Amino acid sequence: MKEITNLLKAGFPAIAISTTEEGRAELAVAAAVKAAGRTLYVWSVTEGLARVLEAGGVTEFGDTQDPMAMLGHTSALPDKVAILLRDVHPFIGRDASPMLIRKFRDVMMAGKQRSQTLILMGHDVPLPPEWVKEAAVVEWRLPTREELQEVIGAVAMSGKVKVAEIEWDTVLDAAAGLTTTEAENAAALSVVETRGISPDVIRREKAATVRKNGILEIVESSTTLQDIGGLELLKGSLHEKRNLFTKAAREYGLPTPRGTLVVGQPGTGKSLTATATARTFNLPLLRLEAGRLFGSLVGQSEANWRTAFATAKAVAPCILWIDEVDGLFAGAGGASTDGGTTQRVLKAILQDMQMAGDGIFFMLTANDIDRLPDPLIDRLEVWAVDLPSRSEREAIWKIQIEKRSRKSKAFDLARLAEATDGFSGRQIERVWLDAMTRAFNDRREPSMADCEAVAARTVPTSKLMGTEIEARRQRLNGRAMPASAPEGAADPKTAGRRLTV
Ligand SMILES: Nc1ncnc2c1ncn2[C@@H]1O[C@H](COP(=O)(O)OP(=O)(O)OP(=O)(O)O)[C@@H](O)[C@H]1O
Ligand SMILES: [Mg+2]
Description:
By secondary structure, the protein is of the alpha/beta class. It has helices at about 1-10, 20-35, 65-75, 90, 100-115, 145-160, 170-175, 180-195, 200-210, 230-240, 245-250, 270-280, 290-295, 300-315, 325-330, 335-340, 340-355, 375-380, 390-405, 415-420, 425-440, 450-455, 460-465, 465-475; strands at about 15-20, 40-45, 50, 60, 80-85, 115-120, 135-140, 215-220, 260-265, 285-290, 320, 360-365, 380-385, 480. The protein contains 24 helices and 14 strands.
């Protein structure tokens, strides 16, 4: 990697490389060290310090497992060396010994004179603040499309697959976001299974890999905007944006929109909207598991976010969906409660949002706007969803009935909407499924009577959570655009504004 070679030539006494792909990064470091005319040494807490020999293999130095001993040893090393330190972060983190930190600095000062460079590598390398001026930071990125093509091409050749027949565009879309090793494995599997490079196999492997790696999940969904009842204004706005992620839009000179925050009452179609957006924009949907963002180790949460964001960036254009984002910031403001981790993660998210612009659409869903930090709200288009109006309930009933392959014409939708006043969309679905269950037990088809009977014994969300619903409405008032058109306007009988989606 040219960047590392240049940093070595420029005489930086320390280079920090955060990477999730250690094997590949180490190979690149070795090449860069060689290109800069330095000799490579490696250190790890298990093996101690060792010199890497040109012919392969290493010469070890005894008793250098302890970082202090290793640093002490550097003065005995010749000039023009680079020392790769594996997983050194526990020794320089927040609880590091001041003596060790000082020793590191001494070695760096001396290193500048003698062209000795420490290369700190790990999943996440949090540098002590006082080093920032001395050390260069390199973020190990995921491979580019060209690099992926090279790797997959090599697998294809060795598997005797005709490279000319590979549909590179789709294959590379499928592979984007994988590391080289992962792409190599996926391609090899594809050759074994299909005797070719199949985008489907690679996509499947990517979904599995992304999930295994931690906090992202690729959501496959066939939901469209037509599966959402009501919320006409929100749907209209998303529909308008549908072409903004295309090449044509880019060439036209349009930037991609940053994202949307959908806030409001429970069970009203917020998560549904997120999945429908993916189909509308025709983009892959990456769901962030907010609960798993927070790791137990210091610095791990930010590293988790960075890994997730790096994946999203590589997959881009894509939708990055943070569901129930208010849960994430439940403890926000609480530097006292969690050592400021939440605040640091938030800062990282905000920074990345600022930079993103190109191809990552943030889709945030939440119940409560009050728990969300202002800068986050500020960066997004904010929509408020409320419990469905009468005409919206009609639309939801129609969708739910048809979703279970029944004819909505056989039902009086207006009466059902009336019977489910104050219900959320989720509750309507529940009522319908319960009605179907009743009918099924009697081996007959569900009827109006079933639906009305179940509705009558159900307590509507509006009552169940009455005070909370009203309070939430107040909090949202004026801070967000209403997702629903005013009652009447969206009524198909009175308004000509049916969406063609
Ligand atoms: N507007 C709607 N149109 C059609 N179906 C809906 C609508 N709202 C809710 N539903 C039904 O209820 C289910 C739950 O909705 P969804 O998960 O989108 O709610 P949510 O707003 O994300 O709720 P929560 O705040 O609890 O996360 C959906 O899968 C869908 O079947
Ligand atoms: Mg939800």
